[in-house]
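WARN retry 2 of 3 for item q-0093 after timeout on previous attempt; input resubmitted unchanged.
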Amino acid sequence: MSSFPSGRTLPAAAVVATLVSLAACGGGSSSPAPISASPPVTPTPPGDPLLPQTELTLATEHSSIASADAASQPNWPAWNHAGGDAIDGIGCARNENYHVHALLSIYRNGVRLALPSSVGRNNSCNYEIHTHDGTGVLHIETDVPKTFTLGQFFALWGQRLSAATIAGLPGPAKYYVIENEKIAPVTGDPAAIPLAGHKEIVVVVGTPPAVLPRYDWAASGL
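OK item q-0093 returned
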C-alpha cells in the first residue's frame, strides 16, 4: 500500500488513482453482491368477472337445449301448489310482453338432474317464472321487463338454496354462470344471482361433469 508524506495535499487525480488501486488490491470493505433486476410485473386487467379459471370446460360442438331433457335424470317430485298468490315477489303472468329464457343446470356427481316440468304452473296461475319440461329452461314472462333472482325461483319451487345445500342435495354446492359461452364461478350469495335471457346457471354437487354442453340458444328457438 502507498504511503503519503504528512502535511501534503494530494491532487484530486492522485486521490482517484489511489482509490482505484486500493479497490483492485482488495483494500477497504468488501464489494456488495450484484443485485439482479426483478422481472417486470404485468398488471391483471381490472373489472373482468370472467378472468378466474374454473374446473369446468365447455364442449367444442354446440347442442340443442332440447336435448338436455333426455340427458337429465329425474330427481324431484312434481311441483304441487294450488292457487295464485304471489310468492316472494313472483305473481301470475298477465301477458307475455316481456319473454326471455334462462337455464338452470344442476349436476350431481357428473349427472345432470331434470327439474320438474311444471314448476310455477297450475290450474289457477302461470307464474311469471315457470318451467315447461325437464330441460331446466326458466321461462320469464311478464307484462313489463323485470329482473328476478335464483333465490326467488327457489322460493317459488319450495326448495332450499345455499352454498351448503341445494334442493335437498348434500353439499357443498358450487355455482357458476355461463354467458356468451364463458364460464365464471360465483363466489357470493347464490340466491342473489340474477336471471337473464340466454344465461345459464350451473350448480355442481360432488364430482363435476367432465364437460358441459355448449348450448345453441338461437338454434333451440329460445
